[in-house]
Amino acid sequence: MKNRPSNKAREQKSDTRIELNMVLDRTLIAVSPEAYAEFVVQLDTPSKHSERLSRLMNAPLPWKSD
């Protein structure tokens, strides 16, 4: 009979995989306070009108058939 992991071993392996995925889903980018302040200003600034973006946002959805 082959060595098969116990249920507890399988659960621990699964828990480890979940924890690893949680770590891999996070990214830390370190920037200077000045760069961060500029980034926040850009996020808070309203975007300019863009005809190209407007066409894209109003294009028919390919996965919907009306």
TrEMBL record:
Top-level division of the source organism's lineage: Bacteria
InterPro entries: TacA_1-like
Record's keyword terms, sorted: Toxin-antitoxin system
Name of the protein in its database record: DUF1778 domain-containing protein
Annotated source species: Mesorhizobium dulcispinae
Upper lineage: Bacteria, Pseudomonadati, Pseudomonadota, Alphaproteobacteria, Hyphomicrobiales
